[in-house]
Amino acid sequence: MSRWLSDSAVERLREAADSPDLAGTRYRLIDKLGQGGMGGVFRVEDTALERQVALKVISVGDRESDWPARLLQEARVIAKLEHPGIVPVHDTGVLADGRPFYTMKLVQGKRLDEHVATIPGLSDRLRIFLRICDAVAFAHAHGVLHRDLKPGNVMVGPFGEVLVMDWGLSKLVGASRGAAAGPSGKNEAPVTEVVEQGTAHGSVLGTPGYMAPEQTRGEPSVDQRADIYSLGAVLQFLLADALSQPIPRALAAIRRQAMAADSADRYSSVQELANDVAHFLDGLPVSAYPEGPLARAWRWIVRNRAWILLLLAYMVTRALLIFFRPR
Amino acid sequence: MNKALLGLILGGVLGIFDGLTAWFTPAVRAQMLQIVIGSTVKGLIAGVLIGYFARKVKSLPLGIVFGLAIGLLLAYAVAAMPDPSGHHYYWEIMLPGGIVGTIIGYATQRFGQPAQTTAR
Q1: pTM score over 0.80
Q2: What gap in Å lies between CA A317 and CA B102, rounded to an integer?
Q3: Is A148 a catalytic residue?
Q4: Other Cβ atoms closer than 10 A to A85
Q5: Which residues of B touch A318 (CB under 8 A)?
Q6: What are the residue ranges spanned by the domains of chain A?
């Protein structure tokens, strides 16, 4: 076809074909929001509740693959994770052409990779990172691995809300696995293939640079430490981008431990990683960075600088009054 | 510990130490007891007032400014009373008094239980 039509015309036709036919549903198409890992995301109006929501549907070309089952799996996983940091699913259904879809809260905001430049301070960035950790730790507690954590999959809302998005590559592990198995009733097979961004399907099954080495190698033993590696990469992104100040050693050590090549050397849980970051923010020692007595003393001084300055001011004033009193 | 009680205790302790520093001024060493008692009472009053303010107003800058103002005001009231020779010690009393007030203002904003709110 491309012999007679320009690339842009082909692209427009493909987009038109991918646009969901919402006839027979309570939704009305407004526009396309973007292309996710396994399909398009559209802004639609829920005509029953008179509100806008986001609708995710697989691409037409993926109808015969295992994507339909994966999409429903993703919807069920997200529905299971009721957390302020995870976008809530409202509804699932099937379009007239047989493609399954689900609707979720329409998140007004920016992706973290687009938003980060507007966050000037290190502590503000770390607080956002802690919110991401909260959501991921919650998912892990419910037996769900995200497996595609990256700044592009985190939305920051206008009121500071932080939401972890795109659970299309999530994997169920542990006791919860059976409880939320795929639509066929079988547990999801782990996704091991690595697909670069911008493939023919526009799908992303992992993002180089954010994937743990064992995930890249397709090892079957991928566990929550793969997400911890990805969180370390997100932390690195937050630290590297547009920060003029040098990265504190303790924070660099936290990132190093989170991104250790050997998963056994990483934090054993997201909570441990988050605790270290929170301790760093509070001026407390972090487990990833054993410090000497001088470094410990300096941290104590920095942490208590207001007290020290006030007491010094008092003592200096008293000393000056004593030594310069009229005789 | 609520903020008013924290202010009271901190004001009392700092007041005692502030009074004891009068020992370094030989001219008033004979009146040490009165000075320590007076300084302690001043610290207690300042502590309660600043702690009460911290219960009502949650703002570190305002707390510090209020602490400084109360410290200076009470210190002025004390400094306005001359010693037996008729000499006033404005600088010697007001400067440290202001800093003590600032310390209490800072501490009561940072620490201590805020006022309880009741849901109706």
Answers
A1: no
A2: 14
A3: yes
A4: 19
A5: 21, 24, 96
A6: 24-105, 110-281, 293-323
